[in-house]
Amino acid sequence: MPDTMSTNGTAPLFVIDDLHVSVEGKEILKGLSLTIRKGEIHALMGPNGSGKSTLAYALMGHPKYKVTQGRVALNGEDILGLSPDQRARRGLFLAFQYPQAVPGVTQVNFLRAALKAVKGRDVSLTEFRKVLQEKMKLLKIDAAFVQRYVNDGFSGGEKKRAEILQMGVLEPKMAVLDETDSGLDIDALRVVSDGVNTLLGPEVGALVITHYQRLLNYVQPHYVHVLVGGRIVRSGGKELALELEQKGYEGFVHGNGGS
What we know:
Blueprint: E1 14-23, E2 26-36, E3 41-45, H1 52-60, E4 65-74, E5 77-78, H2 84-90, E6 92-95, E7 102-106, H3 107-119, H4 125-139, H5 143-146, E8 149-150, H6 156-170, E9 174-178, H7 186-199, E10 205-210, E11 223-228, E12 231-236, H8 239-247, H9 250-253
């Protein structure tokens, strides 16, 4: 079981062990292993086509992404046999790189339905309002924003902010953020990063998937992993992200570990 990067002595929250994933018969992930504990932020970086988004979708149970080998465990339970909604109920959350618009459905209604689904019970209006108002205050989101239709006509920054609000309301145990910085200008990046930092804490694990180092200036990881060709080829501290910014992925792609 992979356990090389975590040293705080607590039991693993999230374990990916020898994961192989194929899409339409082509193997994309080729034996990926990673261990995350509560309170840890892990960054997964890699060039386009390395398998970053494949990992995110496979973890959440997208039917197009077929796991052919390996194990994924959340709090010790293998989740690969669970449906996406069951994984969400266990505490797994995915923030999409390209969030979809849902015209005609307000964010308020969407969030209440999502909260009920994740909790597996009815959520009273009073309980929901308390949770929503608390998270809106925490994330500095005004009431008008949540009355808009889900991602309908939203800017890139607004879409990502809506995703972070969803994460706040659902309070996951393990958050996977798939290229949350994609398409954001510097101001939107700061706003979204502030929201992520506000919500992450000692009881939550996070996997931040990104192509560029700039997000990691704001959401600082404990560990950084480089994914190339469906495998993690190097792991290290946050200084590894700075090295990638300076040298690029060229060395990793050609198999010398970036040295």
